[in-house]
Design brief:
By secondary structure, the chain is an alpha/beta fold. The protein has eight helices and twelve strands. Strand 6, helix 2 and strand 7 form a beta-alpha-beta unit. Helix 2 runs parallel beside helix 3 and helix 2 runs parallel beside helix 8. The two termini are about 30 Å apart. The structure holds S-adenosylmethionine (SAM). S-adenosylmethionine binds next to helix 5 and helix 8.
Length: about 260
Amino acid sequence: MQRYFVAAEQFGDSEIRIIGEDAHHAVRVMRTKPGDKFIVSDGQSRTALVTVLEASPMVIKAQIVERLSADSEPSWDITIAQSLPKSDKMELVIQKGTEIGAYAFVPFQSERMVVQYDAKKEAKRIDRWNKIAKEAAEQAHRNRIPSIEPVQSWQELIQSFGSYDLVLFCYEREGHAAHGRGVRLAIREWLENSAAVSTPNVLLIVGSEGGFTDREAAEAEAAGAVLVGLGRRILRTETAGIVGLTCLLYESGEMGGA
Ligand code: SAM
């Protein structure tokens, strides 16, 4: 069944309105007509089964038939901080991370980044990334769309550590040397040594194609990050965040079964 996210102001008490590209796609591509049913979410806490009352490429009006409580969101909020990768790799990280259950994405700059950071270009790319996150969230039947933060500098990222319960810095050097602590050990140690948190807020930091400098690793650790390995193989930048996210959700029992 087709699903759409709408802005909170389009989600009324008994009726919802779909506008813009979604209305156009529903009518022109999906041939939506009065009487059809689909699922609508406001991307925060409200999801409903609706029946179409009126359908035009500009606006669709639908009656709320039933409020749905199925919550597909993980009980851990995991944000992937991804050092800006080349070409369209970020789109893959966002699409797959959204399907798997990422809470948010923070693109950031690091020393060995291969791409040249261009603020104007990034602003356009963030629009595209938001579109990818919305489509992936609809396809994955999520209740919310992961947020994509503006590109941060290395220092801005480090200063944000305090707003997370746990910061994991994926350091290929550690992992490669096989002496790094894996995600599982890092989580177990954190769970043992910290007060219980109902919805752990975790930051997972991934380097670009050029990886991290020892200085960045030392600065991150000094600011409270835990260096973790993702196994003894070197993963591509676009693979590492997806693997780290999956490990975290697996360990938190969110990948099916406890
Ligand atoms: N310096 C790496 C090399 O030797 O080829 C390249 C960096 S790797 C392509 C990109 C990022 O993915 C790393 O900075 C790290 O954050 C993460 N990563 C890749 N493999 C990893 C591993 N085995 N353990 C931990 N992090 C890893």
